[in-house]
Structure formats: structure tokens, C-alpha cells
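To: structure desk
From: M.T.
Subject: fold request, one chain
Message: Could you run this one when you get a chance? Sequence is below, nothing fancy, just the single chain.
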Amino acid sequence: MKLTKKNILAILKEREGSTHFASLLREFGGRHVKGELKRILEDMADAGEVTRLRGNSYALPGAAQGLRGKLSAHRDGYGFVTPEGGGEDIFIPARHMHGAMHGDTVEVQSGQSRMGSGKQEGRIVAVVERASSRIVGRYEETRRGAIVIPEDQRLNLVVAIPPKGRGRTEDGQQVVAELTAYPIGGRPAEGRITEVLGWPGDPEVEVQSVIRRFDLPHIFGPDVLAEAEGVPAVVSREDLKGRVDLRKMPTVTIDGETAKDFDDAVSMRCEGNNYRLWVSIADVSAYVTPGSALDQEAYLRGTSVYFPDRCIPMLPEKLSNGICSLNPHVDRLTMTAEMLFDPKGKMLESSFYPSVINSTARLTYTIVKQIIVDDDREAADKHRPVAPMLLEMKELALCLQAMRKQRGSIDFDLPEPEIIIGLTGLTEGIIRAERNLAHQLIEEFMLAANEAVARFITAREISFLYRVHENPDPAKLRDFQEFIYGFGYEFKLVEERVNPAELQRLLGEAEGRPEERMLNYALLRCMKQARYAAENLGHFGLASACYCHFTSPIRRYPDLVVHRILRAALALEEKQGDKRRQKQLDIATERLSEIAEHTSKRERVAMEAERDVVEMKKLQYMQQHVGDDFDGYISGVAAFGFFVELEELFVEGLVHVSTLGDDLYTYAEKQHSLIGRRSRRVFRIGDRARVKVAAVTPATRRIEFTLVEHTASEPPVNAATIVMPGEEYPRIPVKGKGLAGIKRRTTGTDKVGPDKGDRNGGGRKRR
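Reply: Done. C-alpha cells follow.
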């Protein structure tokens, strides 16, 4: 048989399972083709056409019986694969990455780590699907030829650009390169320049680079814009049919100073000792119909994306800032959740209906705070028609907040940065984003409306799109339980699960203590990320059995879907058995699992892009402060050093272990600590530290600190220093587990836990 790729594939297909190299060699004539067969098989394996197996065997990718999952690569060359069916991540050493790139869907052969840690370690045997077809990076001309160095260092490659693919690109420019060949068998990736973005350092170029790198749709097509132009600019008399008229009711919007799209408006009145609350949400579903160009574009985007200096909207401005925005003193179509609460914040009744409102006032968080917190008489007089209502809203918000905390809803008290951008687009300052009672008031009302809608639809056994947040990973909870025991804290685990009230109690006990911030961050690392689902799995972080997103249809596609389902359900309930209305409900509930998966992915992409721009702006600012000293606290610990977050600027940088010249340090993962072998000095999450800015490297997204002063937090109250046989570093005994092991893996965890709020000004708080 002739030695060709086609014939090799035919043999592997015929034999199904795996085939040993010696068996293939016999098929093609024996030893005289050994070298050629080996070379072809290696090329095919690197290209993902066949799978290498242990014992010098080969198989088709689907027959390898390996795990399939998504690869998260590290800039140092190694990576982790998250299995599609769930389970523990598989560590992939750099030597076994075999040309796979960050984000690729890969097939993995796994086994136990050779280092005896008990962790799974594997090798990539096939690339199932490539995540990237284009690269954003810096174009450089070298003696060996032109290359593009990706901005995302996790890609861990260099793209060669042949002469025909360079165009008029100049050395040092920021570009987009389309990949024409992936890295295979030691050969580099190749590509061609498709877009020149400009010069690094230009704020606009940097933002455009992020938009391209995360593949964010940012330009509306002509068909979408044409459809938007056809939407009426004012509410007509015809539009009011079948709607409850709330225009004479005092209704206000409360948003940030720079907000332009107003999703929600609120109104309230006291009825004896009870509170009746109206939450009216922009009725985007009245203008964006299923299957339309506007709908398809909104689905593609999934969410609006918020950068410090701009917003990439889900809907064109004609809708998002126009007819769908609840601007003051104009009629607007809405969907209203009307709810009655008792004096303790318990919901007594709720109803939902299409409505029309005319907002009395566009208020800001600052104005509302002046009235309900600062007791500013001048502000109250200026807004006399609504000031008494705001004070009553304050009472209800505090009741709702207390009830939510009582049931176990978890609130992480972690500050967020606000980036101050100058006229040139450069970062002029970083301040703590304010979150006061005015913000909390709106958050509580939105949470209540979201929960009420979810309960209403669920009670009718209608297919629905939920916002879910699952119980934390049991292994992470056990590690966290061991860690906090050393500080005198405990919580109950029952059948590998924890009641959120237990964690809320824990955070309450730590409030005001030196380890408070440390415990908040450590617990946040245990949390899973909230997502959308077609099945009701509950919302752990909110301690809610039934929850959805209803309150932001201008900027979140799932909210638009929820509106459609709610409207169709209300219409069908009004006239049971109506075939036309039943069909509308059927259309509204189509493809919910697919929508949930897609919009969850789009939300994660948006969050990563937002975080990336914020980090980039922080780097810009810190370049002006090289050599300056700052106070901060240790926010993360790894084998190679510890991260310090600056107290006033919310900027994080690394103190590398090599700069700690007083001792050799060992990483204790479960204790989130570095421990000196000789001195037994401990650097732990939550410790205060004063650092000097040693270097800022925008190209690698790194800020390097050197330690000036370290103030250790109080030693664990349940700890004892024990020297293990053959070891020179202490370990901390933990309750129920004997001695806490020290693990090899050093992967970090994004600070992305349960959603932090339903309102944002900046788009990053997502309940």
C-alpha cells in the first residue's frame, strides 16, 4: 500500500480504536519507510488529523476517548483545559501544548501528575476547533522577516508575515493580522495584515485594539440602521391601546450623572403601614420584534459593553437614547411590575401589565443621596414634588435590604475603581466608585422586580429564561473552610453544600476586623459565575429560589426575551385558548437553552473586554508614578510572589519572590501564603504592605513593585507552627483535615463571583 495521509486515515478509520505504530509500519512495507511514516504521522498529529496516544499508538481524534474542553493558556506556555462535561481542570505542561492556542477547543489525554500532587495532568492530542482566526498585535520588522507579536500574551506565539501580506504597514504599528497558517510541528504561525489600527500609546488605538481582540460588534449595518430609522420618535395615541395609563403618577428615573439610556423608572406610595411600589421598565419589545434586523443584531451583541470613555450599545442610539429611553417629560411605553410590601419588606401581592408613563424627573444618585442621606434642604426644595416619595422609598429599600440579608443574600463589600479620562483620552485619575444608599435603593427595587417576574412565570409552568448562580465548588469550599479556621472562623458544609446564610454570617463576623478584606477576596474566589439558563437552578448569591433579569432590556438581550415571555403570558392569561396568543408565547419561548448559552458567553466576553480596558487605563496612569511609594494590601499569593492592590488607586502589581532577599519562600496554597523557610516570615492575603513602583510595562500588562514595608495581619488564632520531617517550612494544622498540604499548581482566579448588583452606571455590576 502506498504511504499517503489518505491511506493512513483509511486504516485508522477501518480499525476504529487505536493502532500501534508497528502495525501501521507493516501495512506500508516495513522498515524502509519507518522515517517517512514517523514524519507524516507527526505532521498529522500536530495538525489535529490524528491523535497520538501513549505506547506509540495513533487514532482518529474522535476515537481517542480523550476529554474535550476549552484551553486556557498562560503566557509562560502552559495551560489548563476545562472539560466540557464539568470536572476538575487538567493541567497541560508547555511541552504538551502541541500548537494549541488560548481559547481553542481541544481533545486531551489525561492522567495523574508525575509530581504526586494528585492533580490531573495531560497532553493535547488534537485541536477540535480554533478560537482565533485573527490576531491583534504589534508589527515588527526584524532581520529574519516581519512578524506580529500578539497583544494577548496567552496566545504565546509569534506570527510570521510574508512580504505579500505586509501591505504598507510601518514598523511598530498596531495591526490586525488574519492567520493563514497555524503553528504546526515547530513551524510558526503565518498571517497577513488586514487592518492597520495606528500607533501604540494613542488612547483611541488602544481601545480599538481591545474591540478587535475581543471581536466586539461595534458598527451597526445599514439594514439595522434603516430599521431603527423606521421606528417612530414619539408615542402615538394608537400605541396606548391596552396599556395602563400611569402618566399622572409621580415617577422618577435615578441614574449616574453621565447615563444617557434610562431603562427603569420607579414610583411609590404608602398605603397605611404598607408600601406600594411601581417599577416601570422600558418596553423595548414593542419596537424590537423577533427575527427583525434589530433583533438579530441585539442577539449577536448580547449586551452593551461599557468602557471608561464610551459605550458600545446593544441597540442603535435611535432606540437606546431615544424612544426606548425613559427620558423626562415625554410619554414612554413600559412594562410595569406593581408590588405591595408590608412594613417588614415582605411582598404581599404583585401584578404586571403593559403601561405608559411620563417621567416626572431625571434624578441622579448624587441628588437622591443629598435628599435621603444628607438631609439637604436646598436639594429637597428644588425637587419638592418627589422629595417626600424619595424618603418613603428609603424606608422600603432598607426593609428590603434587611430581609434579603436575613435570608442569606451575600453582599461582598469590595470597592470598585472609577477611571477619570481627560479630554485627550488619557487617564487623569483613579478614584473609588461611590456606592451609597441611593444606589442601594434602586438595586433593591430592581432585585424585587426581577424576582417577582420570575416567580410569576414559574408558577404558571411556562418555559423561561432564568438568571442562575450555582452553589460554590465543594473542593474550593473545603479549602476555604480550612483556611478560615486558622483565623477562628467556621461555617457548616452539609452534603458538600453550604447555605448562603452561613457565608453572609461569616462576612458579618469579619466586618471591621483586620482580616475582613482577605476573607471577602478568598470567599469570592470560591464562587461560580452567574449565568443564564433555561432551567431554574436558583441564585445562590442572592439566596433566591427563583430569579431572572427583567429590568434592563435596552442593554441586555435576556431581559428583552423575558419581556416577550411576560407579555405573551399576560395576553394568554387574559384570553385562555386563543390560538394566536398561544403562538406568540410559543415564539417567545423558542430556543431558550441556545439563547442562554449564547448570552452568557457574550456577557463574559464583555466583562473581559471591560476589565482589559480598565487595566490598560491603570497602566497608563501608573507610568507617571514609577519610583513612587504607595500603601496597599496583599490581594493574591502565588509561588512566584504576591500581588499588592494599592489602597487608593485599586491598581494591582506584583512583588516578585526574587526581590525578597531575606529568605527563600515556599508557597502554601490553602493558606494563601508565602512562608519563609528560615525566618518563617509569612506574607498572607490581607496583610498591609507599602510598596514602590519599580516598573510599568504596557506591552506585557505588568506592574512590578518592590516591598518597602510589610505589616503582617494578626496570626491565625488556631494555628501552630509544625516542622514536617525533611522540610524546613511550617504548615498550619486545620480542623478535621490534619495537616494542610501544599499544592504545586499556581493558577490565579479572576475576581468574578456572583453578580454584585443590578444597576451600574458603568455596566460591570450584574446580578
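Reply (cont.): DSSP finds 17 helices and 38 strands in the chain. Let me know if you need anything else for the meeting.
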